[in-house]
Amino acid sequence: SQYGGCSADRIDELLAPFAERNYEKHLADAQEWIEGEERQKAFARKKTKKDIFDAMQSLEYEINTLFTSNGQTPFTSLGFGLGTNWFEREIQRAILQIRINGLGIEKRTAIFPKLIFTIKRGVNAQPTDPNYDIKQLALECATKRMYPDVLNYDKIV
């Protein structure tokens, strides 16, 4: 499922614990300054969502502005799509939205990192699955940017 070079599979699940720690930090700040548990949680989620987006955008921009000694962009791959908690879903959504938005003023399509979105029954394949909306975003991204590549988990495993 990976193309070689520098690859990270299930990046959404890999980064989620760090996003959760970020949320806890924002929640602690909110508890100090904002009244009401629901308002505190909403604030922490909003700040965490922005931090996730900014971090994933930075990763994409860093990869696409880094060059090897012979002038090539490093071959990188990111696999994702199976995480179902809020943090994992936000990471997935950010990866896809950033790719849809494009790079720079010209809104160029980024070639790297290669995006590999995994579709799995019970996760995102059917309209009743918890991540079906993310799959729809992945398909929108693929139609606009030719990425991500789609991996059918049930056919491989």
UniProtKB/TrEMBL annotation:
Signal peptide: none annotated. One of its GO terms (molecular function) is ribonucleoside-triphosphate reductase (thioredoxin) activity. It comes from the Bacteria. SUPFAM superfamilies: PFL-like glycyl radical enzymes (SSF51998). GO terms for cellular component: anaerobic ribonucleoside-triphosphate reductase complex. GO terms for biological process: 2'-deoxyribonucleotide biosynthetic process; DNA replication. This is Anaerobic ribonucleoside-triphosphate reductase.
